[in-house]
Design goal:
Blueprint (H helix, E strand, L loop, with lengths): L5 E5 L5 H10 L3 E6 L2 H9 L3 E4 L20 E4 L6 H12 L5 E7 L9 E2 L10 H10 L5 E7 L1 E3 L24 E3 H14 L5 E4 L7 H11 L17 E2 L2 H6 L15
Parallel strand pairs: 1-2, 1-4, 2-3, 4-5, 5-7, 6-11, 7-10, 8-9
Helix pairs in contact: 3-4
């Protein structure tokens, strides 16, 4: 097996599994992790090399991940926010052949009242997620890039359903920051193809309607009643800038306009 053509993906959920399928179609050997034996069998049935990896169970549970990490590139795509668990993971990665790490982060590292958010900004507060990012970006054993994705929409995540069942829209005048699942996958692939290591990228669509106008439109489009909207003063000012991925990576969005989506 050529490790240079092998990508390990930590996390096989809503984004990880379709990413693995896309990479596999592109000719990559994909190692895919899950936390349960039943899901591992499902992944094997889909012709993936599946591994059971749960970083929150402690370092002892990571003793069997050597095969999973027999790859050139590791994509970390899990929801855990446990700093100690990621510290344990880093120690294991350092002993592996992994040369490149792509850490999937979130635009939640930016303050809701930061205004235009760019990758070069000094963050007002160091969140736990930011500390986890730095575990990887400051490590000298491998090259690391970070993608900070905005809110995820797409297959099985139609934004019109977010406020079904009487859930209210909070801070209705705040701007929406979202990205479609297909753009997430293609942006990850662009970074891998271009070997764009040692950098941080925002992943967010072009337009930013208010939460009130956007989610009302999306709910009505599915036949749901207009959701109740709460207004907060001062309203959150966060707008995630995506200019860097367009200029530096030449990325062209599949869904630049979040009002025209297919889910």
């Amino acid at each position: 097996m050529n490790q240079n053509d092998t990508v390990s993906i930590l996390g096989s959920g809503w984004l990880g599994l379709p990413l693995a399928s896309s990479l596999q179609l592109a000719g990559k050997t994909v190692h895919l992790s899950t936390r349960t034996a039943s899901k591992a069998k499902q992944l094997t049935d889909l012709n993936f090399k599946s591994y059971i990896v749960d970083i929150e169970r402690g370092l002892d549970s990571l003793n069997n991940v050597e095969d999973f990490l027999q790859a050139n590139t590791l994509v970390i795509n899990i929801t855990s926010k446990s700093l100690s668990a990621f510290q344990d993971l880093v120690t294991v990665i350092e002993k592996s052949p992994i040369a490149h790490v792509l850490f999937i982060s979130s635009t939640s590292v930016y303050s809701n009242h930061q205004g235009i958010c760019k990758e070069s900004d000094t963050l007002e507060t160091e969140t736990n997620l930011r500390k986890i990012e730095k575990l990887f970006t400051e490590n000298t054993h491998f090259d690391c890039s970070v993608i900070r994705f905005a809110g995820l929409i797409g297959r099985k995540r139609h934004p019109g359903r977010f406020f079904a069942g009487g859930k209210r829209i909070k801070d209705g005048h705040a701007k929406v920051n979202l990205i479609h699942q297909l753009d997430c996958i293609k942006l990850i692939e662009a970074i891998l193809q271009q070997q764009a290591w040692g950098d941080v990228f925002n992943g967010c669509a072009d337009n930013h309607p208010t939460k009130q106008s956007y989610y009302t439109k999306m709910a009505l489009s599915l036949g749901y009643p207009e959701p109740e909207c709460l207004i907060t003063e001062p309203s959150a000012s966060k707008i995630v800038c995506n200019e860097k991925i367009k200029t530096q990576l030449g990325y062209q969005f599949i869904y630049p306009d979040i009002c025209n989506i297919v889910c």
